Amino acid sequence: MNRASRNRAVVTFALVASLLFLGKSARVMADASQEVAAVEQLKAEALKALLRGQFDQTNKLLGQAAGLSHDPIVERIAGWTSNFEQQRQEFTTERHQQYQKAVDNVKLLLDKKHPDYAIDGAARAFLLADDKKAFRTEDWVNTLVEDSIKRAQGYDQDEQWIKALRIYSDLSQVEPAVPQWKDKLKLATRRVRLLALYTPDVLKNLQEGDQKERDEVEALLKPTTQPSAKAPETQPAVDKDNETFKIDWHETLRGVQLEMLWDALVDAKTNYYRDMNYKKLALGGLNGLQTIVSTKGLEKAFPKLADPAKKAAFVQALDEAVASNKDATGDNSEKLALRTTLMKIKSVNRDTVELPDQVLVSEFADGAFGELDPFSSMIWPNDLEEFNKTTQGEFSGVGIQIQSDEDGSLKVVSPLEDTPAYKAGIKAGDIITHINGKSAKGISINQAVRTITGPSASLVTLTVRSPDGRSKDYTIKRETIKVNSIKGWLHRPHGGWDYTVDADSKIAYMRLTNFTKDTGKELDKAVEQIKENGSKAIILDLRYNPGGLLTAATDVADKFLKEGVIVSTRPDRDTGNQPTVAVARPDENDTDLPLVVLVNQYSASASEIVSGALKDQKRALIVGERTFGKGSVQMLFPLAEHTAYLKLTTSHYYLPSGRCLHREENSKEWGVDPDVKVEMTPEQMRAAIDARQDLDVLRDAAAAAPAGGDQPKLEDKSQKVEDKTAPKTDDKGKAKPKKDLLASDPQLSAAILLLKLQLAGAHI
């Protein structure tokens, strides 16, 4: 082969080699491109599954994506989801175990002849069941429900109101679509309320009459693993000084007047959000009075109810009033019949059972406005202070959170920062043994609150026993206490909050407990601190938040929105109350940090306005469970020169999407549905609340231990706190490991996961 031929051969070989190389490279590039596409497809499908709440599928798909790509970011994301899925499986297993335990308890209680408590267990099992319809149709459930209905009817006849109330409460849970149980529950609740207010000793006797069976049931369901010391034959009597703390119904109804009631009835007829007539109000009010007469035990407070002739005469007058109001037609006729009824009943009452006028007025009002909705009611003069506490976020007192321990002791949960109690040196875990020299042993929380609070600048003396056994008297001057509505992740020593829940990903946590006039300002300060700390995302926790002021809700939503509708209101009829629309406006202090909002079935009213607006405007992901469905607007109508008010529902809230927040009797759609549904059992909720409360306690930096155990390291963001709902030892007597809050709260864990994914670049 000559040189030219050889050169041509070399060139040909080189060309072939180049073509082969290029072809291989093209195939490699094509394979790589296909691999990238496959990874992206897996990631997209994983995120879709995540939003459907299919966490197991999300974990599987991201695991496949990580295996294909070997991308450190994808592998990290897959690791996060794998850890969360492992935790979720633990919670799911725990839920199934709790369900089976509830079912087993039902069968045990039936076998031991405790059917009243067996239906309690069935209601609990119903809430834990994966398929509630299937659960309700099981034969043993049918048999138990039918037997419980008969037993409740028998308790009604025997005037065993507490037992009837418990069964009707359970039936309304197992059969939520049956309105009869709600009506029965409402009546039984009213009877128990009457006894609690007017004859608490009678109610106490009813409760004590059931105590033996309660103790037997408790012993069956929670047998001790180790023998306990024999209990004393009798419990020590409550200190006689406690009698001074009892709330007299005369004080509760102080200032109640008939003209207040009449003006309130007129306001209700005119301004209620849907058509209302005097006839319905009259019949409801008369029903309230009939309930007094027919509730055994009230004769202890009102002796003339024990006189058969006088009682019969009063009942006859009530029956005649019912008939006359039913016969009335047209607004004027109905109004006249109602006015005549009030005058006549007041007169007949004086000649027969002699109920005090304020009792007659209060109970007629309770029955009348009970015909409207649960949120329309009277605010009597004695209720004003408590009402202002909830809406203004202020009260006059010393500034402590208290609870009643199992032995009846009054324990300090936490002092509030910068308050008289905190400055005086009262600490978490202290026991208040006396208030103004009177024993505080065994008194109720309401009694304690009413006694410790009082006019600003007045004095109260608290005798406090510290955990080391030393007692000291603190004479403290009451001040106006401002209760902050926004809390962070961890209470710092000496006050203030650490908002960082995940230091590595720089995720902040805020909990909004209610909506007060200062909530907007508090939010501004919290967000400013969060930004200064370098946080890149926020979790806003609205769980258990009952609501508050509409203006506060719109302020909070506006903080996260630059434009668009927040909420609108309108009545169902023309009442003169004009529809309203609240719109977000741009502000230089607005924040655009990624946001997840936590909600549950106890998030209501203003909480639903905020979460609903942020969801509809695509500003935040909502995590948790469907909210309460309190979407009604209440207005205050002043009575008797602002000494009392009618709180009346005048319209409903509507989200930007047009959805009505309110849950009506037969609603199938209400509240705010989460983007990512994460359910929690009652036990899981309690564990998370206990863990959360432990972090909320305000302690000195040098404090050796909190009230319930070891002092957490306050600088450690992953606090180890005791799961207080679980036994401290296992079956073998060994100490159980403590849980941190994230291990107790799957909803919070899900929120952190979602924000981590967003910060890593996932488009959720």
How much of the sequence lies in strands comes to 5-15%
Instruction: Indicate the structural class.
Output: alpha+beta
What is the mean predicted local confidence, pLDDT? 84
Using only C-alpha atoms, the radius of gyration works out to 32 Å
How are the secondary structure elements laid out?
Blueprint: H1 3-51, H2 55-69, H3 72-111, H4 115-128, H5 132-136, H6 139-158, H7 161-174, H8 179-198, H9 200-209, H10 211-221, H11 249-252, H12 258-271, H13 278-293, H14 308-327, H15 331-351, H16 357-369, E1 377-379, H17 384-392, E2 394-397, E3 400-404, E4 410-415, H18 420-424, E5 431-435, E6 438-439, H19 445-452, E7 459-465, E8 471-477, E9 479-482, E10 486-487, E11 490-491, E12 497-498, E13 500-502, E14 507-512, H20 519-532, E15 537-541, H21 550-560, E16 565-570, E17 580-583, E18 595-599, H22 606-616, E19 621-624, E20 632-639, E21 644-654, E22 676-677, H23 682-696, E23 720-721, E24 739-740, H24 741-744, H25 746-759
Parallel strand pairs: 14-15, 15-18, 18-19, 19-22
Antiparallel strand pairs: 1-21, 2-9, 3-4, 4-5, 5-6, 5-7, 7-8, 10-14, 11-12, 13-14, 16-17, 16-21, 20-21, 23-24
